[in-house]
Amino acid sequence: MEEVPPSKSVFHIPNDIGEIERAVDRAVGCCAGARLSRRRLLFNFRVGLTEAISNAILYGNANDPDRKVRVELLVESGEVCARVTDEGPGFDPAAVPDPRLPENIPKPAGRGIFLMRALMDEVRFNAAGNTVTLILREKPDYLREQRRAGSGTTPRPVPPEPVAATLRDFREGLGLDVRAWRIDGHERIPVFPGGLRDAPGSPGHRFRVDLDDGSAMEVQVDGHGPDSPVAKVLEATLERACGLVRQTARRGAELSERREEIGLLYSISETLASILHLEEAARRILEEVSRVLGVKRGSLWVHSPDDDLLRLAASVGGGQLREWIPVADETSITARAFRAEHPIMAVGDEMAGPDAGASPASERESWLSVPVRYTPHTGAARTVGVLNLIGRRRHEEFTPGDQRLMVAVANQIGAALETNRLIRESMARERVSREMELAHNLQMKLLPPLPSIPGVEAAARVLPTESVGGDFYQVLQLSGGRIGVMIGDVSGHGFPAALIMALVMSAAAIYAEEGARPATVLEHLDRAIGDELESTEMFLSLCYCVLSQGGAEITYSNAGHPHAFVVEPGGAAHRLLATDPPMGIGAAPYGESTVPWTPGEDLLLLFTDGLSDTLAQLRRSSGEELVLRTVAENHRRPVSEILNRLFEMSVQAIPSMPSDDRTAVVLRTT
Amino acid sequence: MSFNLRRVADVTVVEVDGQLIVGNRQDLKQQVLAELERGARSFVIDFARTGYIDSSGLGVLVSLSKRIREAGGELRLTSLNEDLRTLFELTKLHTLFEICTTLEEALAG
User: Fold this and answer.
1) Across-strand partners of B78?
2) Dihedral of alpha carbons A132, A133, A136, A142, sign
């Protein structure tokens, strides 16, 4: 594995506890290069640093909003060091009582410093007590060691259940004299059967299996040699049980790690999205670096692979710089540093190159030209630009220490440059178009052809927009000759809306086919997608109608869907009034209503806003009126013709892409 | 970071979605205390979607358990990941709380 050069970052946090989580995530983001287990970084380091920063804000800085907390991070390949400094008078860490003492357990406060010490490998306070240094080192399983060391907390004394069950089956079921011990380092702990105390005796067959937590279990079967089929079967079965346990444990760990990683990714991309203006960010970095090192001029050049030029991204301290330098330019130090992929320190006349900017020829100036490198998580590092510092204020030369610092800074810039490029690219096309495509496919795939149901004449259509929405419909043949008809419209667009639609459609089919009443179906749906709706701040208008067998009535639940009607042959339209607000706003229990229905005469008409809004632009009357009038005028025609008529009109109304999906369902029973 | 409250029979289940730390602990406290005031007595806090808890998060749980017990109620915690369980053991707080493995277990009797 490639060694990552040490890097140092410093940032300041406003004295506000609401800023802690973001600051901690940012710090964790800076540690991506360290060779530490992700789990320790995501748990031990985050909790430890959270404690340090909240102590600094609440106690050190006495919650004073005018103060700041300084966080300094030193990341090396096998170690992460965080130094948190507040502006307060400091305190005496030795004076903090042990929170594990019986009298302290019920107290709500006083665990912060203890947790820091328990979770980090090293915790140091400066003499004043206003700076705490936390160090986390590469070490395989610190938490587990803590667990073992902690008094009163022994590892699970019994084997995992599938393993224990196998042992029980063989002992009790087959009458086999099976005993088992857990081997933990040099320790041998009897684990099966309960009450067993003695060490394994000499006769019988003895073997070992690995348990899920790195320890092993020794099993002895008395009265059977290694060739006994019973012993062999037991050994194989136990091994399989252990394998299963390990697999389950691994899956669980992977899942929780994945969730953490996704959370982290979100917060990092949020931070970086806020520095989309690369030039501004680069200029700020240059200013800071120039100030710290006492440098007169600084410039950042970014490689543009298309024309193989180094383009000026930002400069400070003036000087007339060119807009670009060819990578092949032999006279340019900047280009040389880029090609050589290592820093160049120089002084004097050789600075006469074109990238120096205007400076009096007589003045001998020191130069530091550092390639900006980007190291992806996988794959080789590459050079993406050059960072130049020219002329120290006190005519000093650059030192190797300056160079090391600049390499670290350049690495940070490299990561930011690369992210910036990726964000721009993906925002421009990949993400948006891919999301749309996925959503569109999902929407189309999910809308099944209408089932042909004896005695039912139905037609339905969704015309999705370019920006896919979440309209859907379903016609279901239910038990007892009943028919279910559903229409829904998810607020919002793109993949999240399509996802909700997918969830609703699959859940609806299941519950509807169980023959549940409309209100019960909606309640099940609410339970299935309520969280999803809430977290995405979307809502769903949904109308679900059940026609009774051969029936004279429709029972329905309507969560805020505005356009649901029973249309009589004379054209009179009866609105199926909403029984509840849209899902996501309203909540269970859902209401239910029943209206009369005349087979062979009435039409059930359900449509979404997209259709009526489009039609509203055709004439001055409201879109809904126009839909109803069109249906009334064509009432006796086959439902597919009525549907065609509606969509033809909407296409006439807006030849270009409308803003919302247009969906309609027309149904008649005979 | 959010807290979702729901009722399962007469138990108030609080799902913590995200980290429980100094910046948001008061929200949790207020929401649970408001439910307590409205008459709820059985509480389950579900940490299935929580990566880490800091000391002030632990502190809030301690003071909530006290308030709930004083009101004659009961607080259970569930679905702690292995790191979180270790955190409770390290601080000996596992002696103070009833900690269940699954939500089903927490809701049972």
Assistant:
1) B46, B100
2) negative
Tens of pLDDT along A151-184?
333 444 567 777 887 788 777 777 778 888 888 7
Smallest Cβ–Cβ distance between A54 and the set B53, B54, B62 belongs to B54
Please provide the size of chain B in residues.
Answer: 109
Per-residue model confidence as pLDDT tens digits over B11-56: 999 999 888 887 788 889 889 999 999 999 999 999 998 888 888 8
Strand residues in A196-353 grouped as ranges (E): 205-210, 216-221, 295-304, 309-316, 324-326, 344-347
**Closest CA in chain A for residue B95:** A105
* Contacts with A, B 3-62, CB within 8 Å: 4, 17-19, 21-24, 49, 51-56, 58-60, 62
Give A599-626 pLDDT, tens digit per residue.
989 999 999 887 877 766 665 557 788 8
Radius of gyration of chain B (CA): 12
Question: Are residues A21 and B96, on separate chains, in Cβ contact within 8 Å?
Answer: no
Minimal-distance CA residue of chain A relative to B65: A106
Out of B21, B55, B96, name the one closest to residue A21 (CB). Answer: B21
Crossing angle of the two packed helices A623-633 and A609-616, in degrees rounded to 10: 100
Name the E strands within A452-589: 456-463, 470-477, 483-490, 540-547, 553-559, 564-567, 573-575
**pTM for this structure?**
0.37
Structure-token match 């690495």, residue found:
A411
Q: Which residues contact A541 (CB under 8 A, 6 or more apart)?
A: A488, A489, A491, A559, A560, A561, A562, A582, A583
